[in-house]
Design goal:
Rossmann fold; EC 2.1.1.72; methyltransferase; 736 residues; 33 strands; alpha+beta
Length: 736
């Protein structure tokens, strides 16, 4: 209860108390608490190259203008190359159907840029751009999608809602140095709303991203610097109230970034948002190889282990006994019987030439040993307990043991018994990297962005530059904490940049033979200086001469292609070696596959009339797990009655009257994950889905049967700021 609630409750007049309580309740609904920022105008997406049509939202863009998307109109009619346009009636929501009455304006059609308001219903398709196949035929494919990440997230929600194991993003840091855009205009340090715009942009995307994460066990990883770290922390707490959120400080530039009059910045911050049962794994300690293992003192330390103490955590009487150490050699020669608490240790008589050593703290407090008497006999005989030095204290000799962790490392082969000392105690050294818990302060050499980021990218793309790439090994380690035990994990990065996340996933798969899959999303934004130079030459976004210099086509895809093939864009073997957890020549490449798509938008009518199979075929392939060669229906090729490509794990029935043909094709076929049936008849679909499972369910456990195109349309017709309507997917209680 807040203070004002408490004060209202103390008002004796019941009528007044109830009225004030009601007014306060209404006030709370209007007032924002916690993180407060403006809900900015919806973002607009320019559709360069799209032909303006009646009803489209457009911006008037005179030739040569490439600035912000501000002058929004709606096309009322088009005649003889001239569009008659009206202003949207609701300036805050230009896609609203109500329009203000007023004088119309006319513009040449070729001066209009079609725009899409975020939040409008969209009907996405994926256009294949390129691919690299260097893995086995049945290996899953990594995916690169060239798109604005908001609409790409809407698409991914249709494909993978609740199925993503890890999202790793490195959003713009909002430094004020024109490092990101809002409505096609750079947000810089002079923009008084830059923090609010950044939060509004991030909130929209995080709400979509949250739908992707597996609620039972998944993680969101977000990197950021000091400019937005505090606001981001509050935003994450607001959007993920059920999650456990931790922040790590990571040194990425040990030299420090010099800033006059300020501290030199060496670090960035990483938020880990853990969903469900997700826990932090351990990190390999590569510097431990060849080192001798550490012994620990065998005397217990905690106060619950004081001799004779009872209660929770207390030791039994069998853990207080004398250990006999030879005075001349300093070696253990045996032990005596355990002493009950009422028996003084002074009654113990050691063998001739030996001294009785009890677990005694320097202040004289009697403790207990780590082991019972019988356990001591076992581990001492194996050489896992030793005396290690005399001292002038109540406990005359240090008694040490190899803890359970080290004994397990010996059993697992991480550590090896090299030899034995004269007292039979073992000498053990690490033959491989050990696993260690990691703190919230990272100072790990492999995370240096200069060597692990810029240096790696320079090897892959010698003649191309990208500002501030993440260290490949830093991303790899962050992912390893949560997907090392998930060889089939699905990882998403919707601020993909140069593609480091997918590169790191390939490294993880190379290390353990995993089949993890990464989905990357990035736009094809051209750097500010490059855009100015291209505009000066009379070029415009959307033209091939412009688009070839965008980040996705010039950096992201070429980087990943080089990593997979082991060759630079010039066809030369990549020079240099991968380091740290997995060292091998970069020229070896990876046994991996990558499909590159560009996001496109379909007319609703085409989907409703079942004329979009070719365009949504890549979506069906991705929804089924992107297994096997990507199937393709070439332009002009007629749609088949039944689409059942060899080597694929999905089948599509496009003519519901040919159900018998589908069932015949499913006879004895294994390895299927999805069957898509095109029909508008809901009751018929349920019957057909049941028939499919009776024929193919036994050979294909968990087979998902999906209704097209109803499932697709319902997913995208609703506004993404509202709860999504229930889809028509029959998957025995689980969404396909």
């Amino acid at each position: 209860m807040s203070a004002i609630d408490d004060l209202i409750a103390q008002i004796p007049d019941q009528r007044l108390r109830e009225r004030l309580a009601a007014e306060w309740s209404n006030a709370k609904k209007e007032k924002k608490f916690g993180l407060v920022f403006e809900d900015h105008l919806p973002e607009l997406l320019p559709l360069h190259g799209a032909k303006p049509r009646q009803g489209d939202l457009v911006c008037h863009r005179p030739q040569g203008h490439i600035g912000a998307l501000k002058d929004v109109w709606q096309i009322q009619s088009i005649h003889a190359g001239v569009a008659t346009c009206v202003k949207p009636g609701n300036e805050a929501h230009p896609s609203e159907p109500t329009r203000a009455a007023g004088k119309a304006a006319q513009f040449p059609v070729d001066e209009l840029l079609v725009v899409r308001e975020f939040g409008e219903p969209i009907f996405p398709a994926l256009v294949p751009v390129d691919a690299v196949a260097n893995g086995s035929a049945d290996a899953p494919w990594h995916t690169l999608i060239e798109a604005d990440n908001y609409h790409a997230l809407q698409l991914l929600d249709y494909l993978y809602a609740g199925k993503v194991d890890c999202i790793y993003i490195d959003p713009p840091y909002n430094t004020g140095a024109r490092d990101w855009k809002y409505n096609n205009d750079y947000v810089d340090g002079n923009d008084q709303w830059r923090h609010s715009k950044w939060l509004s942009m991030m909130q929209r995307r995080l709400r979509l991203a949250k739908k992707l994460l597996n609620p039972a066990d998944s993680v969101l990883i977000v990197t950021i610097d000091e400019k937005e770290v505090h606001r981001l922390g509050l935003l994450l707490e607001q959007e993920f109230p059920e999650a456990r959120i931790e922040m790590v400080s990571s040194i990425i530039n040990p030299k420090g970034t010099g800033r006059p009059g300020s501290f030199a910045r060496t670090n960035e911050f990483i938020f880990f948002v853990r969903i469900g049962s997700a826990v932090v794994g351990k990190l390999a300690d590569n510097e431990s190889t060849g080192l001798e293992v550490s012994w620990e003192t065998m005397r217990r330390r905690n106060l619950a282990s004081v001799r004779g103490r009872k209660g929770k955590g207390a030791c039994g009487p069998n853990q207080f006994y004398p250990i006999f150490v030879n005075i001349e050699s300093g070696s253990i020669v045996g032990r005596g019987d355990p002493l009950p608490p009422e028996i003084s240790r002074d009654t113990c008589v050691a063998p001739e030439g030996a001294v009785a050593v009890f677990p005694i703290r320097p202040d004289g407090t009697e403790m207990n040993w780590e082991y019972t008497a019988s356990a001591f006999d076992k581990w001492w005989s194996l050489g896992y307990i030793r005396a290690n030095g005399k001292r002038d204290e109540p406990q005359q000799y240090i008694i040490q043991h190899l803890p359970n962790k080290v004994r397990k490392e010996i059993d697992d082969g991480v550590a090896k018994i090299e030899s034995r000392r004269s007292d039979n105690s073992v000498i053990v050294r690490y033959v491989g990297a050990t696993q260690k818990h990691v703190t919230t302060q990272w100072d790990i050499p492999s995370h240096n962005a200069e060597h692990g980021g810029t240096g790696v990218l320079k090897s892959l793309l010698p003649d191309r530059r990208f500002p501030f790439p993440k260290s490949l090994y830093a991303v790899e380690d962050a992912l390893r904490f949560f997907v090392a035990h998930k060889p089939e994990a699905l990882i998403v990065d919707f601020f993909a940049g140069s593609g480091t996340t997918a590169h790191a996933v390939m490294r993880l798969n190379h290390q353990d033979g995993g089949r993890r899959r990464c989905v990357l999303v990035t736009n094809n934004e051209v750097a500010a200086d490059e855009a100015a130079a291209l505009a000066a030459k009379g070029l415009q976004p959307g033209q091939p001469e412009w688009e070839q210099w965008g980040i996705c086509r010039h950096i992201t895809f070429p980087r990943l292609k080089a990593a997979i093939t082991g060759k630079t864009p010039q066809g030369e073997p990549i020079r240099g070696d991968y380091k740290f957890a997995d060292e091998f020549p970069m020229a070896e490449g990876f046994a991996a596959n990558l499909a590159y798509f560009k996001l496109d938008f379909l007319e609703k009518e085409r989907v409703s009339l079942r004329r979009a199979f070719r365009e949504i075929l890549p979506l069906l392939w991705l929804k089924a797990g992107a297994v096997g060669p990507r199937p393709e229906l070439k332009r002009g090729e007629p749609e088949p009655v039944l689409f059942a490509p060899e080597g694929s794990n999905f089948v599509v029935l496009l003519d519901e009257t040919r159900m018998g043909r589908l069932l015949q094709a499913l006879q004895g076929r294994a390895g299927l994950s999805h069957v898509f049936i095109v029909t508008d008849a809901d009751e018929s679909f349920k019957t057909m889905a049941q028939d499919v499972r009776e024929v193919a369910g036994k050979a294909n456990p968990g087979l998902a049967v999906v209704q097209l195109y109803r499932d697709y349309l319902l997913n995208f017709m609703i506004n993404q700021h509202q709860d999504r309507a229930a889809g028509h997917t029959d998957t025995q209680g689980a969404r396909a």
